[in-house]
Amino acid sequence: MKICSHHAVLVLAILGLPACASTARVSPVSAQASGAAPLPVLIRQTIRTEMTMQALFMGRLHLDPHGCLRGDSDEGPIIVWHHDTGIERTPDGRTRITDSTTGNAVHVGDEIALSGGYRAGPLSNVTESVPEPFRTPKRFFIAGRVMSEAQRQDILARQRRQPAAPLPVGAPPAPTVRR
């Protein structure tokens, strides 16, 4: 029986699938064989919808010690990604999250912007095989589509142009920030 090299690669790729394989794309076999870290858990919504809540998350995409994608820090909200989102390892070893509908992508460590909404309590309507450390988060963010860097910069520019809200009558003066 003759086994082609591409069949051997396929068998190795299947054996290398993580326990939550249904929630992540596998990095190339060469990256796994080179000792690359496993991909983080990508918790996604199971409900296919084009609607999103109207809150805004802006901050750094953080990977906690348990392999969970969070906003800003180990204590930040767990991000529950849009159902059309995928995860992969880039050739340079970074972890990329891509919205397959828009093509917008972010990397762990990037400053990002996501529409969506904050929630508390147990996770529901998410991809199966949610690892134990993530099952009962104190706070999570249900994300809409991944925004592009141009969209994020537009939001920042609009925030800078926003006039400061007036202080209530009798309130102490606002602190002066010097840069």
The helix/strand class is: alpha+beta
Please state the CA-atom Rg, rounded to the nearest Å: 20 Å
Shape: globular
Strand content: 15-25%
Query: In which range does the helix fraction lie?
Result: 10-25%
Total helices: the number is 3
Strand order of the largest sheet: 2-1-7-8-3
Characterize the main sheet: 5 strands, mixed
Overall average residue pLDDT = 74
**Unreliably modeled segments:** 1-34
Q: End-to-end span in angstroms?
A: 72 Å
Overall strand count: 8
Annotation keywords:
disordered N terminus; 16% helix; 3 helices; 8 strands; five-stranded mixed beta sheet; 179 residues; alpha+beta; three-stranded antiparallel beta sheet
Structural features, described:
The chain is an alpha+beta fold and 179 residues long. It has helices at residues 5-15, 29-33, 149-161, and strands at residues 55-63, 69-71, 78-80, 85-89, 95-99, 105-107, 111-119, 140-146. The longest helix is centred in the last third of the chain and has 13 residues, at 149-161.
Give the SSE map.
Blueprint: H1 5-15, H2 29-33, E1 55-63, E2 69-71, E3 78-80, E4 85-89, E5 95-99, E6 105-107, E7 111-119, E8 140-146, H3 149-161
Parallel strand pairs: 3-8
Antiparallel strand pairs: 1-2, 1-7, 4-5, 5-6, 7-8
